[in-house]
Amino acid sequence: MDSEINRRPGGGRPDWIRAKAPSGPNFEEVMALVTDLKLHTVCQSAGCPNIGECWHERTATFLILGNTCTRNCAFCAVPGGEPLPADEQEPERVAEACAALSLRHVVVTSVTRDDLPDGGASIFAETIRAVRRRLPDCSIEVLIPDFRGSHEALRVVVEARPDVLNHNVETVPRMYGLIRPRADYEASLEMLRRAKEMDASMATKSGIMVGVGETTDEIHQTMRDLRRVGCDILTIGQYLRPSLNHAPIRKYYTPEEFEHLRLLGIDMAFKHIESGPLVRSSYHAARALGDKDG
Fold first, then answer.
1. Over its length of 294 residues, how does the chain's per-residue pLDDT go in tens digits?
2. β-strands 40-41, 61-64: how paired?
3. Which end of the chain has less neighbouring CB within 10 Å, N or C?
4. SS3 label, residue 96
5. Domains and CATH numbers, the chain
6. Which residue pairs from 262-265 have beta carbons closer than 8 angstroms and sit at least 24 positions apart in sequence?
7. At 276, phi and psi to the nearest 5?
8. CB count, 10 Å around CB of 176?
9. Alpha carbon 207 to chain centroid distance?
């Protein structure tokens, strides 16, 4: 595969990989809020490049179930190790933060908690209910782990009735051994299929990062696989290596290539697709629900 990164002197990032620097009063407000409420955000824990833009707009993606993941995927900056017990009061604090920010759309995700019998599904469900109590008009999106394939855990989350259920396949199946060695591509597809089967009115969503060594044909096939299981919303973004201990970047995709993938997704009948170098799972998430403000 022709690698964009190999054509750049010194292997530096291309000019189109630029993000807003985190600063300003809104950024400081969100920082103070999550600190005071003892919350985590994926914006911080995963080193998201969009933290400056999103926090300037007074929105954040909340990371529940702690800040330590029981897995150690080769692409992810979230620390791995032995997590603390689940915090039963965390859902109410997330809801308090959402109310303080007057959010109209909230995204809640988590670390993977293979140590918990339900993988943390009950905490997801209670967080949905807590936000609904505080902000009944706020739409809610959850980005869930694979719950080790447990359909019972999935049902607990679906029955709490989020507006959007997201589960990322992350990459093409051939790259799972390197990128997601403790996950299973077909099991992730099955989670999305089952979620839609459990509640056909609920939007399902998934995400792919590119640049880890996949081919264009493999991306296209993964997109087709997601449509086959009824996935409504898709995000495609550039993989950015968190550290030298993580999987290397094999290619920087150009904005034109991302636009090609977006148009292909439209042709495949995804209801909404975000595709761009800095796109992440929750980036402009409210757009998928009719350009509702975040």
1. 334 454 444 457 888 887 666 667 778 888 888 899 999 887 776 667 667 667 667 777 899 999 899 988 888 888 889 999 999 999 999 999 999 998 999 999 999 999 999 999 999 999 999 999 999 999 999 999 999 999 999 999 999 999 999 999 999 999 999 999 989 999 999 999 999 999 999 999 999 999 999 999 999 999 999 999 999 999 999 999 888 989 999 999 999 999 999 999 999 999 999 999 999 888 777 888 875 444
2. antiparallel
3. N
4. helix
5. 5-11+20-289 (3.20.20.70)
6. 262/236, 264/220, 264/223, 265/223, 265/234, 265/236
7. -175, 165
8. 19
9. 7
* Cα separation, 23 vs 28, whole angstroms: 7
For the record, the structure tokens of 40 come out as 């985590």
- Output the six-digit token pair for 209: 């990062």
Q: pTM for this one?
A: 0.90
